[in-house]
Structure formats: C-alpha cells, structure tokens
Amino acid sequence: MLQYKNIEDREEMMNYHRARDMINLLIYFPELSPILDLTIVKSLEDYYENYEELKDLKGERNDTLITKPSMKSVEGSGKNPDIPSIFKRVKELDEDGVLILFRLNHPFSERYERYAGISLAVSVGNAIYIEAVGKGFDGREVSKGICVHERYVIPWLNLRSCHISNFKDYRTYKISDDLYEQTRIDRIQFLKSLHMPIEKIEKEVPEKYEDIPDFIWQDIIQNILKKLPVMEEELISGNLIEFAISGHTEGKRFLPWQIFDKTRYDIGRK
After folding, report:
1. DSSP state letter for 71
2. Half-sphere exposure of 106 (CA within 13 A, CB side)
3. What does the pLDDT look like over 35-58, one tens digit per residue?
4. What is the pTM of this model?
C-alpha cells in the first residue's frame, strides 16, 4: 500500500499513470482537487491486510505503471464499489494493475446529476483549448475523446481580460440538435450498463442540449484561467508546458480530478 500522506511513498506513486495525474493536480491546483487520502493498493491481499484503514475509501480508479500503456478504465457507478470484483477485472487486464482508492471532500453525486464534464488543454504562452459536455454527462466523454458539446479557444494574452461577459466570444463550436441527440442516446446506454435507474437517467439528461450555465464558467475563469498567467514561470520550471486539466462539476463548481501532462494528452487532437 502506498499513501500520498506518506512523503516517502510519493515518488513511487508517480510511477503510475492516473496516480501521477491526480498528484499533479494536488501539486499545482490543490484547492481544486476533491481527493482526500489518495492511496494505491497493489493487490486484493494488500487490500485485506489494510482493510481497517481502507474500508471507508469508496472512490476508486484502476491504474498501471507508466512503463506500460495506460490501462482501459474499469467503469463503475462510483458508489459502494465491489473491490474484490473490480480487482479481479483489473488483474485480468494487466498483472501489474493496481487500484487507486480515495475519499472525496464533497457529498457523493450520481454520474447523471452533473452540470458538465470539462477538459482545459493548456499550452503555456499560447492558448487554452476547452472541450466540454453538458448536463447529465461527465469528464469521461471529453477525456476519452468520445464526444464534445462546446469548444472554446482563448489566446494566452487574453486570459487577463477574459470575463463572464465576454467568455462566449471565445466559443468556436456548439453541437447541433441532431448530433446532440445521438450523444444523449449513447450516454443513456452507457449509464444503463452501470445499472443506474433508467427513469432518473432520462430525466436528468436533457432531450435538447442546454448550454453549460454561466456560474460554471465563472468558477473556471476565477479559479483556473485567471491563475494561469500568474503561474507561468512555475509551470515552465516544472516542465508542465502542455497539459490538460480534466474532470467534471460537483454542484456549482468545477472539481477536476487530474492534470494530464504532455505524455498523456495530445493537444493536437483539437
């Protein structure tokens, strides 16, 4: 077992793809991260040996070593995970597969209850490229390139003058009603595959696309976009020049889970 609270464990934790992404967020934007008690468990035996300390960590993600390709996500509903079953699936995919366990600093929300999933691709000194999906969706769609509902491009030199009153001026794309309908169908099918209640899913995922609310964009402007120019030298010195901040909203805030660095994020795909 490796724990972020143990300083001597952190270097080894950085040897795992998703753990490194989550730690990058804790390093550079600690006030945004919703993650508490970040822990890596390497086997089911490891889990049982430390069960009393781990039993209340309900958040989970699978991961593998950075010397190997990133693992396919073992998807779950996110609530009360069946750890033995998940570990079995993880080890079938990769013998070096591990589970990242954690707590959240906010009440648990269902995957269909969120206002948006958002990824901000940052090219320091050049521009910010934003891809987002709306209500009932989350970070899965944008981080995996499955679909996008809104896109924005903000030149680096415009970050200081970017405000909610002119934010929509930077929008370069909004999905059409026809295209949105198919993304809604796909999203509902995915959530159904996680055994979520169909009546709630269909109610929460709008039939017609609804713009992401201004209060979400205001939160991002205040807590990310305005801070990036101030952090420019720090980011460059940390060799974090091209990266993406990715995650979903919780309530009226954007609480991303990770920073993908340039080895994990293809900024050119936009």
Report:
1. P
2. 16
3. 999 999 999 999 999 999 999 998
4. 0.85
